[in-house]
Write a structure and sequence with these properties.
This protein is α+β, with helices and mostly antiparallel strands. It has 2 domains: 3-43 and 120-188, no CATH class; 46-116, Beta Barrel (Elongation Factor Tu (Ef-tu), domain 3). It contains 4 helices and 6 strands, in the order ααββββββαα. The strands form 2 sheets. The protein has a 3-stranded antiparallel beta sheet with strand order 1-6-3, with no helix packed on it. Strand 4 (89-92) and strand 5 form a beta hairpin. Residues 192-196 have low confidence and may be disordered.
């Protein structure tokens, strides 16, 4: 599913399918989708692996090349062992410090396992199919709540309670979205790196 598909799904949920009289523009819905994708990414980030290298006589490694970083899950050093050897580390700004007894030598590989932001564009998506409905739910909730705020104290052809109906519907959807995020959060899963010895 791409951005176009999920936008169409959200319009269906919001009953906003009259292309001659859209209540939300595509750019407005895109902003709400981006917010939902970011919230999902913080709970269930895209898993990624990077190969970084050490500097001579230094435990510090720059992680500035890790774009859209959410969190570092594990650091494997030294590499190539079985089972993998995960080492303790600390983070400060863009510097990862290996908490090892001995100083690394120059240009040793370090495997960094990390979570990053998901992407959803008109061409591609990194969101697992099982979570697509969750993104649609969150984005629709944000759109409904935003419209309810906009419609407060305005004349509406649907009556004085239109904004309240949107607000209630949006809040219910938002609660479902937050429950879904909590259910799929990586914080609720066993961390594999803890099953291996730490050097």
């Amino acid at each position: 599913m791409n951005l176009t598909d999920i936008t169409a799904r959200i319009r269906k949920d919001l009953h906003d399918e009259d292309s001659q009289n859209y209540r939300w523009t595509d750019s407005e819905l895109s902003r709400h989708i981006d917010r939902a994708v970011r919230e999902l990414s913080l709970s269930c980030p895209l898993e990624a692996k990077a190969i970084l290298t050490t500097n001579a006589e230094s435990r510090d490694i720059s992680i500035s090349s890790l774009t859209d970083l959410v969190d570092i899950e594990a650091v494997e050093y030294p590499v190539g062992n079985y089972p993998p050897c995960y080492t303790r580390f600390s983070l400060w700004n863009d510097i990862l410090t290996l908490l090892t007894d001995s100083l690394p030598v120059d240009s040793e590989d370090v495997y960094v396992y990390y979570g990053k932001l998901h992407t959803l564009t008109t061409d591609s998506s990194t969101i697992p199919p099982k979570l697509e409905d969750l993104i649609a739910t969150g984005a629709a909730a944000y759109a409904a709540i935003e419209w309810a705020s906009f419609a407060t104290n305005r004349v509406n052809v649907g009556g004085a309670d239109v904004w309240r109906n949107y607000l209630t519907w949006g809040q219910d959807r938002l609660a479902d979205f937050m429950k879904g995020l909590a259910r799929h959060s990586k914080k609720n899963t066993v961390q594999v790196r803890q099953l291996y010895p730490i050097s």
